[in-house]
């Protein structure tokens, strides 16, 4: 894996936003793997600026998101569907039909996960996957576990994730479960870029880059991928030797 430290999250967003645009200029029908949380927001802002400048079109692209909360209405402001609409989709020319998220309210969750995984395959797989990382080393919502999961599945959120994300659910109950792409599926992306900023990510970053590969630190699996770039700010990089 390549590790690049830049001054701040804005610079990181510009570099990754430019990479997304270059891919779309080369292949307008590219399949993009998208993430939620604070980390990808500067990337989305850069991408929106490039779209508004007329540099890039999403009209033929497809997007797949990593994960979605269970039992949270899609229209809820904290659903990942709403996040993507607010932070990216409503600002660009993507066809809403081409924006794919797992349905965390599906009555048959196993069938929903199979549908989603089959669609990714049908569209040729993810060309460029954007990732953040949880403080416990999760990617998507793959929490520390005994094995790496391949396809999408339902997961119980870890206590540290509930704590980290509870600030988004002030005065209401936070979902305890989610549907997420598995680590195996994430690794099938042709290219992966991961963003980590801030001191709260430093331990997870060190374990991801320099620790042993273990499902107890799901992001460590990225060491096995041939085309991963990790973008850090100085605080997130502070424990790397
Ligand atoms: C969330 C998401 C992840 C994200 C991570 C870090 O729980 N499921 O995809 O990478 O937590 O979020 P943030 O970027 O806000 O720190």
Description:
This protein has seven helices and ten strands. The protein is an alpha/beta fold and 241 residues long. The relative contact order is 0.18. It binds 2-amino-2-deoxy-6-O-phosphono-alpha-D-glucopyranose. 2-amino-2-deoxy-6-O-phosphono-alpha-D-glucopyranose binds next to helix 5.
Please write out the topology:
Layout: E1 2-5, H1 9-26, E2 31-34, H2 41-52, E3 62-65, E4 67-69, H3 80-87, E5 99-100, H4 109-122, E6 128-131, E7 153-156, H5 159-165, E8 177-180, H6 183-187, E9 191-196, H7 202-210, E10 228-232
Helix pairs in contact: 1-2
The structure holds 2-amino-2-deoxy-6-O-phosphono-alpha-D-glucopyranose.
2-amino-2-deoxy-6-O-phosphono-alpha-D-glucopyranose is lined by residues 35-39, 66-67, 132-134, 140-141, 161, 165.
Summarize the structure.
Helix content is 30%, strand content 17%.
Sequence of strands across the biggest β-sheet: 1-10-9-6-2-3-5
The proportion of residues in beta strands is 15-25%
Give the N-terminus to C-terminus distance in angstroms. Answer: 15 Å
Structural class: alpha/beta
- What kind of assembly state do the chains in view correspond to? single chain
The H/E string reads EHEHEEHEHEEHEHEHE
Largest sheet: 7 strands, parallel
The dominant shape is globular
User: Low-confidence segments, ≥5 residues, pLDDT <50?
Assistant: none
Q: Please bin the fraction of helical residues.
A: 25-40%
Number of strands: 10
List each distinct ligand once. Answer: 2-amino-2-deoxy-6-O-phosphono-alpha-D-glucopyranose
What is the number of helical segments per DSSP (H or I, 4+ residues)?
A: 7
Radius of gyration: 17 Å
Mean pLDDT: 97
């Amino acid at each position: 894996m390549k590790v690049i430290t830049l001054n701040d999250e804005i610079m990181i967003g510009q570099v990754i936003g430019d990479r997304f645009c270059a891919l779309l200029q080369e292949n307008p029908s590219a399949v993009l793997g998208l993430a939620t949380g604070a980390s990808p927001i500067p990337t989305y802002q850069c991408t929106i600026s490039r779209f508004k400048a007329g540099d890039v079109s999403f009209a033929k692209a497809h997007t797949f998101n990593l994960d979605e909360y269970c039992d949270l209405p899609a229209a809820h402001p904290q659903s990942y569907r709403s996040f993507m609409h607010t932070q990216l989709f409503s600002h660009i020319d993507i066809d809403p039909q081409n924006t794919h998220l797992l349905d965390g309210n599906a009555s048959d969750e196993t069938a929903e996960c199979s549908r989603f995984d089959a669609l990714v395959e049908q569209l040729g797989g993810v060309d460029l996957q954007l990732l953040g990382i949880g403080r416990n080393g999760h990617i998507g919502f793959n929490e520390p576990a005994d094995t790496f999961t391949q396809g999408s599945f339902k997961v119980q959120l870890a206590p540290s994730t509930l704590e980290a994300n509870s600030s988004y659910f002030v005065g209401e109950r936070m979902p305890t479960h989610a549907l997420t792409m598995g680590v195996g599926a994430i690794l099938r992306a042709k290219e992966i870029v991961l963003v980590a900023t801030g001191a709260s990510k430093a331990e997870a970053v060190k374990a991801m880059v320099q620790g042993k590969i273990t499902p107890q630190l799901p992001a460590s699996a990225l060491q096995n991928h041939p085309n991963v770039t990790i973008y850090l700010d100085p605080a997130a990089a502070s424990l790397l030797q």
